[in-house]
Each structure stands twice: as C-alpha cells, then as structure tokens.
Amino acid sequence: xxxxxxxxxxxxxxxxxxxxxxxxxxxxxxxxxxxxxxxxxxxxxxxxxxxxxxxxxxxxxxxxxxxxx
Length: 69
Hints:
mainly beta; four-stranded antiparallel sheet; 1 helix; 10% helix
C-alpha cells in the first residue's frame, strides 16, 4: 500500500456497528488503545471489515490541535 498520509497505524478491528448509512469501526492499535472511525456501510462492505481483521487507521488532518493540563 502506498499512501500520502503520514499517520498510518496498523491494528485489528474489534467492533463494527452499522447504522442506517454510516458505520462506526473500532480498531485496536495497541492493548487498550482504540481508534474509532465513522465510514459508510458501503465502505465496510467493500473493505470486508469484520471483527478480527487487520486494518489501518489512517489519520489525515489539515489542522491538529494541541492541549495541556
């Protein structure tokens, strides 16, 4: 896979919850650390996403906010 995004994190799908048109896919990227993505149900089907499948969380943002306590 070649992609221009620099934030590509490999993980395992731990949950796929389909709604009317949008699904929430949870990818565990490290023990206890989960990234959630909202994608179309069509994308879930095309990518054959299911619990246990290896997948990448790809983060592409034009702005990144920083906060401190």
